[in-house]
User: Fold these one by one.
Assistant:
Number 1:
Amino acid sequence: MVDLRGTGDLVNLAEFEAAAKERLSPLAWDYYSSGAMDEITLHDNREAFERIAIRYHVLAGTAQRDLTTQIMGRQHEWPVLIAPTAFARLAHDDGEIAVARAAAAEGVAQVLSTLSTTSIEDVARAAPGGRRWFQLYVFRDRGLTTELVRRAEAAGYEAIVMTVDAPLLGRRERDARNRFTLPEGLTAANLSGSLAKIGTDGLDSGLFQFFASVLDPGLTWDDVEWLASLTNLPVLVKGVVRGDDAERAVERGVGGVIVSNHGGRQLDTSIASIDALPEVAEAVDGRAAVLLDGGVRRGTDIVKALALGANAVLIGRPVLWGLAVDGEEGVRRMLQILRAELDLAMALCGAASVEELWPDLLV
């Protein structure tokens, strides 16, 4: 049995995951933790990091470490952002508001999901000193899509993250088996009417049916340009795993590319994010920001991602584990552990700043 006395008893992100499983309903646990089909990519995202070894420097004078990084011309306290995750109130009543407050307190930007259970505006009001980006799904209804962008702009969000790897929802068999739908009292708060309910006809996952009916499966690179034309905010594309696609994104003027396979939740047996990163970073060649999500669970994982060309990483499921265990304080404690691990890893591999994390550190 996992010790649930408090977050102070948990010393790594894996322990948060185990503790969260004890707290969450079976439906919520399966929704958060599952991947597509046989979940091969889900597990490979983690295992790919473990296959990479660090060949460290010694006597490098690392008594002081600088964890700051630049992303699209703005300085971040350390190279971590909170990835967009839907339906955070399945984990804790405070949901995305608790995440926003924890992120602001720990110097991390939050990427809010289109399918959040708290609205764009309420999240911004909850942590006015925090930094936020908005993750966008493009709907068949382009008026609704435009409205979401305008709302994010008005609420002070700093960037739009366009998810591009989900023309249809991946086949998540645990959700299908559970006939996933939002419990009574929870909605997709940025939407209205029947769209907000994520209901099911009882034959499949409600989210699978939602994607099939209302999101646009016919997106092309022209739609990236269309989105960029709507806003002065930088646009990032999330879900790129190929160098040629990264090149196309840069040609369309994006501010950043997020290397991601959607946490193993879309196309099973797709390449692990960290394995895709070097080719994408080479193709971008400093012309836009490069970020990575998928499988990051240790400070050493962040070192590896930065050494392979990322400017920062995004953390998804561990945020939900922290939220389930102890709300805002659980998320804060999880982030504090990860930051301490990163700081220690940099010291031990001989890097006094993130600029000193180069590919020659890895084998």
Number 2:
Amino acid sequence: MRASPLSVSELNEYVRRSLAGDPMLQGIAIRGEISNFKRHTSGHLYFTLKDEASRISCVMFRQHAQMLRFAPQDGMSVLLSGSVSLYTASGSYQFYGEAMASDGAGALYELYLRTRDRLQKEGLFDVSRKKPLPLLPRGVGIVTARTGAVLHDIMTVAKRRFPGLPLYLRAAQVQGKGAETDLVVALNELAALPQVDVIIIGRGGGSLEDLWAFNEEVLVRAIAACPLPVISAVGHETDVTLSDFAADVRAATPSAAAEIAVPLKTELLLRIEAQRSLLYQAARQQTDLLQAKLQQTLSALQHNRPDNKLKVLLLRLDNAMQRMTSGMNTSMRQLDTRVSGLIQRLKAAGPEQTLRRGYVIALDESRPLQSVTQVGETLTLQFYDGKAFVKTLRIEEENTL
């Protein structure tokens, strides 16, 4: 054991020299899938190579990067040649790449890009095609493997958020030959169930090859054509498949998919209660308003009741009849007085009084005689108390001035 301790820099430098001096770590090639790819403004490339179990940080300096004949991207499987060393500033070891070549999956990734671009131009991924998710689905369909963490995660989240909400599993092959066909059949079977309103389709993480069934055009088109909204939950957050683009919603994980598909029951109950309260208040206000209007209408009707108006009219008619009767009686009395006066005047000016004084009226039948020359053989003498029918003996005329 050394007597004096090493500084951090001395330790890192020692490890760096040890790694650099190990021939097993120089001039080697490693195979892996690119992730977290970044191209620095200096031209250096920084990325991670990963497989199913591990990952390692990598760097390719500009002088080597400019010799590449293709553009590296996340998801590509490559062969990277170089050596292992330690970056002493951070104390982390990394792979320094000097050459890079596609490793089969790179061609698969190129197929992925070509298919993506073609379907995108076709409009298969347009936002206008996306269907809204139901607020409270009658049931949630699940397309995934029967075993594994995906189904367990979805069921756990669904039970926590809305206990008792029906889940319908159609187990399907999610990897390997024929997986895309089985996935399409499973999707269509669940879409045909009347009790299912939304479907989650997905699987766990893996390499590009593992996830390739979800990049197959037949499945992508089936997801886009599905009459029910589809939530895609394929792989990890950094894994993006064509099924994610075609789905109505993409979830980063299966648990996130369940969070999206299954509403929170307590939250719904609170919203329902809030809406109920608002409806009650609105109904109460409307009822109060209608009651006020009804009271106004009743008052108006009471004021304008036909029987009340008829009573008023009858009272007015009775008053008018009384006034008319009183006026008529007064007029009749006045007329009677005038007639009596006229009768008295007529009597006073008539021949009766003259006849009472001894005078008579000579009549030829009923016509008064005004001259002796009008006298015939017979005539009638009108006294005040009767008539006398006489014969003419002779006639004597007298001269009058």
Number 3:
Amino acid sequence: MDIKTITENLIKFRTETGNTTEINRCFEYIETLFDSQIHKTVYRKDNLAPVMLLSNCTGYDFDVLVVGHIDVVPADDKMFIPSFEQGLLRGRGSLDMKSFATVGLDSLQYVIKNNLSLKFGVLLSSDEEKGSFGLDSFLKSYPQLTSKIVLDVDVAGDITKIVAKCKNPVFVKLIAEGQEAHGSTPWLGIDANEKILTALSNIRKYYPYFSKELPLPDNTWIDTVHFAKIEGGDVANVISNHCEALLDFRLTEKSTLLELEQNLTSCLPSGVIYRIISSSHPVVMDENNPYILQYKKLAETILQKNIEFEYIGGATDSRAFAERGSIVIMHSGSGNGMHASNEYVEWNSVEQLANIQKQFLAQIAG
């Protein structure tokens, strides 16, 4: 399988989250990469984003499953034209994460071609960038889907790092109600915007503000929140009677959803309520797990470099499989500019990851 050509072709599909037409076209292209030996499930329900599962076996109990996604964040047209120069493949999705989805597809072809004694699959969602609601529905519809080992290739950044922990993303909406009045007589109204600002100020007492302009905290494995969106008011000279704020919390494994809710309750003034939009669970892997150590040793041999464990604040779709008891190995290639206009992947790291993944599969197949 020519993984570079396939990755470039995948980048050309404008699979921005919600662009169902392009997502379906991309899935159809992926199907053409395999012959009749492949087993395919494409899950579509209501208006949810589709999910594709390709495997070398029937059933839904896997030995190894590669988990990733094909959707991307919005970008200018030019970013859907891949370019390659000085070892860097540029384009939307080059790093997050079409190159690494291709690695999983390459591994599937390798397992089939070499008749490895493994029940192996590749699971690709198409709304990971906006909450993975399609994947959540798919997993609820297939409770029997399990995998002993999950290879999570959606943690791009540095091939010399294996992620051992991911935080729990919790999205919260604050809603404040006030009373309209003319802007010149604020004492005749109740400003919903002020209520939200008070709530946000109180929340900062529990979850401090961090910035590139401020000193780095001594310990970054802590709970954080950023105020993603604040909306209130329609015109300048009217006191706002409604305001909302969207908050993005990232909680470590030491914190619970109940503790967060207790903190929120203590922070909200009269007239402000909160709603949990979505929550999950942190992914915490045992760094001494034999399979993880086996993978790490193999990667170090191939790269001729030491591999370190790291903790990240981001979240991936593998959290659903950690909840189901899978051993999750979170590892991908190197690059920069994720979600930015200069997104690129170091192509050598993609080829190295493909080699690591295939040799690991061959080892555990025995």
Number 4:
Amino acid sequence: MISYLDFEKPVAALQARIDELRETADNDSIDIDAEVEKLQQRSTAMLADLYARLTPWQKTQVARHAERPHFRDFVDNMCSDFMPLAGDRAFADDQAIQGGFATIDGRKVMLIGHEKGHDTATRVKHNFGMGMPEGYRKAIRLMELADRFGLPVITLVDTSGAFPGVQAEERGQAEAIARATEACLALGVPLVAAVVGEGGSGGAVALASANRVLMFEHAIYSVISPEGCASILWRTADKAADAAQAMQVTAQQLATLGVIDRIVPEPVGGAHRSPEAAIEGLKSAILEELAALDGQNPVALREQRAQKFLAMGA
């Protein structure tokens, strides 16, 4: 069962009517196929129309949908094998940031990303995708390992931001994020990042300072959450929709600004409605970007990355 968002209520009502008709047909052996097909077509058209004109705040809600694919879903559907690597060799293994050796269509890569979890237990286990310092230090370790073996790095970004708790600050959260960003920029191998849900603040940039930055059609990417921005500017999170509009958080806006390089289309109604199709589309886009970066030497890759980010806002 799909969990409907507030703005999807007309579609939810229509789908409930379809389910009711099907239940009636099952009980009374009434042939209502034609009516159901007509309503289903109307529902699909309504959904496509809704998603063609989403506001930035509505896209924020879609990007946060609990049923969107997360890191483990990408591993299971995109990789033929995956060898997870754990720990930062200094303090602990952060469950919010996962990574390891992977094979995608026969190509060996280092895959790193945020994992939010799908239910209460796994969300708590993965700290809702909010990385701790040891998570970013683990990412640095894996990037350096990939560089040593000449493997391209792929990062999947999906976090509201790095964990802001006292214990994270005590262990050097800001320094860890800065070092991870530095590690991205210093890589001598191709780095392709994909914002697949939320790309929040330094917690996202630490894994997304890449040669090519991809973004799902209904993902968001910003320096702070809309609620956080509204709390600072208007002293209330109730203005989050206004903040989202002003911050230009959507893939379409960020592509125009040159912050991201490519928008990856999602199935009608968002990636949560057809995760396998969404993942397949992202896989194809990643492989195309890696192919375009093949043959570039380490100096050229570093220079391309540096110039890309220095040009932003100029």
